[in-house]
Records
---
Amino acid sequence: MSSDTSDARGFIDACLSAAFPGRARLIDVSPIPLGLNDLWRLLVEVDGEPLDLVLRRYRHSITWHTDDDHQKAEREALAVEHARAQGLPVPRLYGHGPSWTLVEAVHGHRLLDGDWSAEQRADAVRSLADVLATLHAMPTPDGAFPHATTAVAIATARDRATASGDARLVAAVARLRPLDEAPPVFVHGDPNFSNVLFDDEMRVAGLIDWEDAAIADRRFDIATACWFLRRRAPELADALVLAYGAASGQPVADLKRWIAFATVRAWAVSAALRAAGAPLKLFTTEKDQSEAERRLGEAGF
């Protein structure tokens, strides 16, 4: 057994002991090679019953609203418990600590990883729109949730751009201005389609990865989802906006500016993550950077 494997097993055992004191037996463990944190799929026996779990260890303290965020685990735990209590399809929480969360494994499909029909893709978009509309209508939770505004996001992006030494990013962030904001709601923070799992009927089976949750304008969520879709499946972005407007009863205003804002914010976050050692290629190409600048221009920034 390598030292890395031994260290991981010690960490896993400690988390299970904290979540299920004296009651858990680890049957199987396998790493999940996704995302920027450590993830393991665990098959565990607790009180004689099998549980299929996912353990996450946070490897950096960067979120979209701050550079030194040490409340991710607490925030994710509070977020999934609050959302689950309101009936949203989120994984059940089994435990958390200063740097980890332990939740049930969600079984489902990712929309952009499969060869789905146009009807199935439309169903998936409508289902996510319904979930986001429900989320944004929920009571806001108490706890470690920042009240994020566009002014806060710009200040954070400006610091990240300066630290990166990337003159093109510095110039892009300098063009941003605070936007008119609606009353804040509970937002997921990163509802891109890699954080959504669908069942066989293309209904949302699980909205996962709540470390970026905040109290903010609902358009932080919608614009982030649209930014992601316009890179991977642009034909679905407008469908999501229309479906969200129908589900929420609130058409999404000024979306072009919000998407431009989300794009530059993602550029700044990507730069900060690379500086922290994450192997990200986002916004390292002429195409990505030119697209961000084009969106700024079209949005009037």
Note: The CA atoms of residues 39 and 153 lie 28 Å apart.
---
Amino acid sequence: MLRATIAALFFAYASVGALHLQPRAAPTRRGSDVRCSLAVFGATGQLGSECVYQALARGEKVVALARTPSKLVVPEGSGGTEAGAPLTSRDLTVLEGSVTSRADVDAVFATGGITGVVVALGGKTKDVGPTMLQDGTANIIAACEAAGVKRISIVTSIGAGDSENQAPFFFKVLMMTVMSGIFKDKNAQEALFLNGPGRELEWTIVRPGGLSTAPPNGIINVIQGEAGSIARADVAAFCLDAATKPDWQYLRQTPCISSDKGTSWVKDKGMTVGGKVVK
């Protein structure tokens, strides 16, 4: 009965316009002439692979940590006809390991030259455990501090933290039921930056709406109201900007992002909400 109700709400949700959030604080300037070397955590996920793929396309060097490196493939959204092929590049280093192991995380930074970090962790709770997000992110923060790396973007979800009222009604139902454990972990992950050991880093917590595998359209609305769907490819571009742009305007902020769909959630076969695939 609950699944049927959620499904009905999902497809009935209407579309309205989005607003643009004005930046609140000036960012710390970094040298614009320095080529970035990015560490990506969660690289084999659909969003993480977009971050890797697009960073390489921008000419950046990437170091990725993956439990199963062979699962890193060209993403569907940006990859076109190459989607699903192994993602390889001379500018890409993939290390096998777990984000919950401090030694494995330290190995990423030991490659040298890391200037920015993207955290796009996900996975089913039964596979990764109920506290993987907070435990893994705590390791990343500690490694950043040890290596002197400041810039970091972290993907959580609409509905996390103080954005609960920006989530549509059907999603709030999910948050209180089948996704309650995931959101407990996401909120703890965010707290590491809001009032924890990562608060002095140059962080941006990115809260997207429903994620799809659509190609990027380049439209990213930072919103104050309810969020709609957005392609992972566009979220990845936003995260990379947060990790690399010298004059990033959302430094130490928690922007909720949506596309040009208002609050409409366009369901496709790869759509996820809060890291959970919606069937």
Note: The chain has nine helices and twelve strands.
